[in-house]
UniProtKB/TrEMBL annotation:
NCBIfam families: hdxy_isourate
Protein name: 5-hydroxyisourate hydrolase
Gene: uraH
SUPFAM superfamilies: Transthyretin (synonym: prealbumin)
EC number: 3.5.2.17
Reaction equation(s) it catalyzes: 5-hydroxyisourate + H2O = 5-hydroxy-2-oxo-4-ureido-2,5-dihydro-1H-imidazole-5-carboxylate + H(+)
């Protein structure tokens, strides 16, 4: 099993590079979470390493936190000195330790779409 992600910048039509991505394991009540991985996207909008492998995966709920506001500020795409989207959390469940999960994240300055990709 592996958990991976990539980000496509729909505003500029290219992968979103140098975006901070944090991965959390949610505790049973979903009110507390444990940080388990931190990385940045590369020039292809992907993290250089797999976020989770089957040695570390647990069945449960997870959260990816994308720091997209910093990316848009760097790209000079904020409006009036601020961005509409800043940190975007994506919560999802993993119920099969042997499966591959790829979280696709398409984002623009005004919205985003997340889906399970190949």
């Amino acid at each position: 099993m592996a958990l991976t992600t990539n980000i496509l910048d729909q505003t500029n039509g290219k992968p979103a590079a140098n975006v901070l991505v944090e991965l959390y394991l949610l505790m049973e009540n979903s009110l507390q979470k444990e940080l388990i991985h931190v990385s940045y996207t590369n020039e292809e909008g992907r993290t250089d390493e797999v976020l989770l492998t089957n040695e570390k995966i647990e069945v449960g709920e997870y959260e990816l936190l994308f720091y997209i506001g910093d990316y848009f500020k760097e790209m000079k795409l904020e409006t009036n000195g601020s961005t509409f989207l800043n940190m975007i959390p994506v919560r999802f469940g993993i119920n099969d330790r042997e499966a591959n999960y790829h979280v696709r994240f398409d984002v623009s300055t005004g919205g985003y779409q997340v889906y399970l990709g190949d």
